[in-house]
Structures are given as structure tokens and as C-alpha cells.
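Figure 2 data, in text form.
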Amino acid sequence: MQYEQVQETLAVDGSTGTEELEQFLRDWPSSELADDAAYELGRRAAETGENDRAARHLIWAARMHPRGDRIDAVQLLLAEVELERDHIEAAYRTATRIRDSRIPAEDRHRAHVVRARVAAERGEYDLALRWWGRAHGSAPGPEGRDAADAAIDGLVAGLSRQEVERTIRKLDGRFPALRLELRATELALDDGDADRARRHLQNASELGGTNAEKSRLASLQERLSGLGASGPSAAELPSFSDVKPGPSAAGASGTVGVVLPLSGTFAGFGEQCLRGILLAAGVFGSEASGVRVLVRDSGGTPEGAAAAVEQLADDRRVSAIIGPLLASEAEGGAVAADRARVPLLALTGRDSVASSRPYVFRVGREPRGEIQVLVDHAIRKAGLGRFAILYPDDRYGRGARDLFWEEVEASGGRVVGVESYEPGATDFAKQLRDMVGFKLLSEEEKEALEERDDMLAQARRLPDEEALALREEAKAMLGPGEEPLPPIVGFDALFLPDSYEQVTLIAPQLAFNEIGGVRLLGSSGWNHPDLVRIGRHHVDGAIFTETFHSDSEVPYVASFTEAFGEAFGAAPGSLAALSYDAANLVLVQLARGLHSRDSLRQALLDVRAYPGVSGVTSMRSDGTAQKRPYLLGVSKRKIQALD
């Protein structure tokens, strides 16, 4: 069988031609054309995704014809196939043997790309960036240059601060050092390190750059000029009443993916989120919406979320995906989204979801931001300086304790008392008494306190006037050495990171244990009518944060609440508000004409002080949303907005 005959068969019948190629190799393994036949078989197998079969033919060609005229083309294709098979070291060894001068000019771009990808997989980020730089220069057209740019940006965005610093040193000013300097500046600004940010910004300004890079540099210079001494904080974002109207999503068109738990235990939560997204997309508007929403059910599992994200990512019309909701399923979806390079706006509050994943954004509630705003108001507006913490001994309670303590000390206040209780407890007398000085009493002081308790108990059985006189006498009692008896309340405010139900149990017990003049501080979960109905005067003056306040009089929040009520016949909750904001963050970019995944991703990173109904939002350079929540207070037995 002649090779020319096989080629003629291939031109009209690929299947038969492939069989004849394989027969040719069996008949003529030492022929000068055998490497051509093996290469053609490898190429055809790779095109149909049969990578194991492709590798088998290409490895044969490399071993049997190492000096053939097709050896460099064979090595290039084999390196690509080994990379697809996740055989990274084999791909590395093969890629190093490719001689660029022996392959056609149009194939050199492929060689640069495969070397860049292999280096990135091996953690050689400086080498990967250099190869991507060469791939950018060797690209045959704008699509190749755009792909190289996107790869560079994705790689740089995924580097840690230490990796960025190390790679900058190795590149020594070579392309794309400018992008690394800009990334290092962003990370320094996020950390509140003005000196480090200034140093990298100066380096970036000396490297020139494109118009887009110069614009980004100017934006970072503006951020640096506004950096406070203590670094950025949610408390530094404008309040709801001060924020400027946000950009409009009117006229948005495009396709948005949605992944939510719409079946199983958490289906109700997923349905709330979906309602917020559909409202933002204009599904219930009087005019036809240009936004197409593709909804997939995660089933509430990481595997379900990953599969749903992969399916949506395969549709190139999908510019971004909103969801998943739960932390565990968000992790599964995040891995899939980052691999597919599609922006994912995860609705969870877990920071690790976005960590080192350039295409993943965490837009859920931010506990640290809530506590920053609470502490800032307590110290700077309410004039409080000494704090105690009473918390449930569970994961949430311990986390809130640590965040609150850190923020108080960072803001110049002091934590002077800390006690915990078992989750679901109803009696807090021991913790409260320990907190106000009962724990370190002498025997003489304990006896005096018992006498005082007896007097107070007797007063409850006397007529009003006699009871009042006896209570005053009890309060005036002194202990041994004529020292005042406890309680000695050494704090101005008590932080209670628990639900409103627990707060209504704790607040009256403060008064019962003679702890007065103390402001109650809390986190989201207090905003419920029963807080004041049951807590009554015991919760007057309380200050707490909330992720959504449906009674807000801020115009754009009130408009959202009204529109949601008209569409669904109910008031929106925090999940609907959060999802509505996430959708709008995407729709605003679509309205600007940013439909490509890479341009939309960069635009999301540039979000600053966006007026969301679930919080005024800025995006950090690591993809985590920084939010200023609602600040509410109790006055005259009513819950009122403080900002």
C-alpha cells in the first residue's frame, strides 16, 4: 500500500483512511513516511478527544523516528495531549524538546501556549508568565492575543502576595511585570499597607503600559490617596443615606446562569434567591426583558453544583453565573467555574470560596463588615469605650467574639469582660454575676451579699412604700472594709451575638442581677418585632446590624420592597435582597455592553460603593465583597434605622 493512496482515501473517507494508515504503519514501520502516518493518526485521535489513543501513536513516532522531519511537530502535539491527560511531567519533558525553528511559524504560538500552561501547572509562575508573554507576541490574530491576555490576568489574579512579590523579582521588569506590580498594589491596599502599595505603584508607573493599564493605575492611585491610617473597613463605606445612586441596568441584554438548591432540604431558601434574581432581570416588568436567565438545580450538594456550573459554562452565551447559595455547594461550583473561566457570584459568606480563584466572587453576608460598622458606631457615635462579650459557645459565637474583640481593640476601645454559655441556655445568672465581679469575692463579701439578697427577697412581700425603703437600704449596704458590694459594672456595652429570642431572655436578667446603664449590641438576627414586644424597656437603646431592612425609607430600598411585594405578594427577606443585588451587579455590566466573561470579571473587580439593597458594596481585589450593612437601634420600643 502506497502512502499517497492512503492520503487519497483519507480525503474522501476518514474512517477507512484511518484504518489504512494503521495498516501502513504495520506494513512499513521503518518507512520515512511512517512518522507522518503516526502523526496524522495522533492528530485525528486528539481532535475527537481520544487522547490515550493519540498519545500512543505520537509516542511511537517519537521513539521510532527521533530524527525524522516531523519530530518537532510530533513533540508539540504530544505535549498538548499529555497536558490534556493531566500528565504534567510528561508534557514538561516533551515540551522542552521542541525546536521552534523546526516547526512552521503558525505553530510557534501553540508551542508557546503549551509551555506556558505546563509551567503554570508546575508552579513556575514567572516562567509561565514569560511564555504567555511570548504567546501574546506570536499570536496569529486578535483572538490569540486576547486569550493570552486573559490567561496572564487569570494567573496573576490567582497568585498569593508572596508569589506575586517573588515573581516580580524573577521577571525583573520583563513583560508582564506591570500587571504584577498592579496586582501587588491591589493586595497591599486590601491589607491597608500604604507604604507597600506606594512602592509597587511607583514601580508600575515606570513600566509604561496600555491605556487600560494606565487607567487601572490611576484608579489605584486614587484608592491609595483615600487609604486611612488603619486601612480599609466596611465602616468607611458610605451609609445608605449618603450613597449616590448606582449605575442603571436598564437596557441590559444577554444570558445569565443561575445555580441554586431548588430541590431537597434547602429548596425554600433557593426559591427566595431565585425570586430576587428574576425580579432584577425584569421578568415581571411591563416590557419584554432582554435578559435570558438559565436556571439549574444544584440539589444542595457540591457535586450537583459543580455539574450545573459545568453545564452552564459550556454555553458560551452565558456571561456569568449567580449562585450557589450554601457554603459546601459553593465550593464545588467554585472549582468548576474557575476551571471554566466563567465569573461566578457565590451567595455564601465563606471567604475561602473566592480564595485564589480569579473567576469566583463571594457576595454573601460579611460578618467582619457587620462588626466593623457596629463597633465604629458604638465608639465614635455612641461614645462607648469599655465592652463585655456574652456569647454562645458554638462556632458562630466564638467567631463573632473574636471579630468583635479585634475590632474593639483596633478602634481604641477595651474588652473588659468575656463569658460564654451553652447554646439554647435560658439561665444566665452565673455568667452575668461572674462578669460583674462576683467571681473573686471573699467569704465576708459573700455573707454580706446573702444578707442583701434576703432583704431584697423580703421587700417583694411588703407594701410598696415599705418595699421601696428596704430596697434602698439594701442598695446602700457596704461590705467589709466599707467597700461597695458588687455588682461593679465596669463596662458600657454588652455584645450579644445571638438570636433575638435569646436576647429577650438575657436582657431582663441583666436588670434582675442589678446590671444597669449598659447598652446592648448585637449582630444580624435581632431585627424582629418580638425583640421589642417581649424585650420591652430592657432592650431600649440597643444597637445592632442587619443584612436587609424591609422597612427602610431609603428610596431605592423602598422601591425594591414595593416591586417584590407586587410580584410575589410578600415582603422580601435577606436572601431575596442578596440575590437581587448579585444579579444587578452582573446586569449593570451587561447594560454597558460587557458580555465577554473576561471583561465582565474585570468590571466586577472594579465595583466600588455600589448601592445594594443588601448593603453598600465594594469588591476587593481577591473577589470578596466588602459590605456596609444596615445599622438599626431600639428607641421608645421601636426599631429604627440609625444610618
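Caption note: Residues 253-365+554-631 form a domain with the Rossmann fold fold (CATH 3.40.50.2300).
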